[in-house]
Amino acid sequence: MIRKYILTSDINCFGFMHFKSDNEYGFDVRAENDGQSLEEHINGIKYIEWVIRGGQKTTPILVEEGTNEYKLLDGFKRYMAIKNIGNPVVECFVVTPEEVAIKKQFKYMGLTMEAVLGGQSYFDTRIPLIEGKDTVSEPGLEQIDTLYHGEHIRIEYSECFHIHWGDHGKYRLKLGYKDFMAFCEAFSEVKL
Questions:
Q1: In terms of pTM, does the model score above 0.85?
Q2: In this structure, which topology does domain 2-188 adopt according to CATH?
Q3: What is d(CA 28, CA 42) in angstroms, rounded to the nearest whole number?
């Protein structure tokens, strides 16, 4: 599994549970299989949109890598919310077809994910929101520390400093330590 940003247009969010529809929302749901109605999905999507507009970061969605597109395995409401507010990219956990075939498990923030449809089970939490340490225990995935989370900006540190701003942090500046310190120094001299 790897973690990366993917264009929303490169993800196929439709499958057995969620399918295209001519209704006003553009999709419908098989409630008997999914466990939630269309109305519950719409309310969930609106809630996540509100969370994102408020500056919170949601857990990356789970997708399977394909030849021409990525197949959504888990995170339909998060994906739709991000797409609805106009963000062209979404943060994803990407698993391979081989990992799906063996139903490989991964740890993320103390929870177990599985490389299967619906593999991010968050029964004890509503929508996981990331504040403070975003610790990933799987080898090869970095730990992200949220250094500052303000109304319009978020500063994180992993392999370098990331400064996010705009809706859902869609704009991002990556800086090394020296450049980040120069950036901070420059702003400390600005009178706001």
A1: no
A2: 3.90.1530
A3: 10
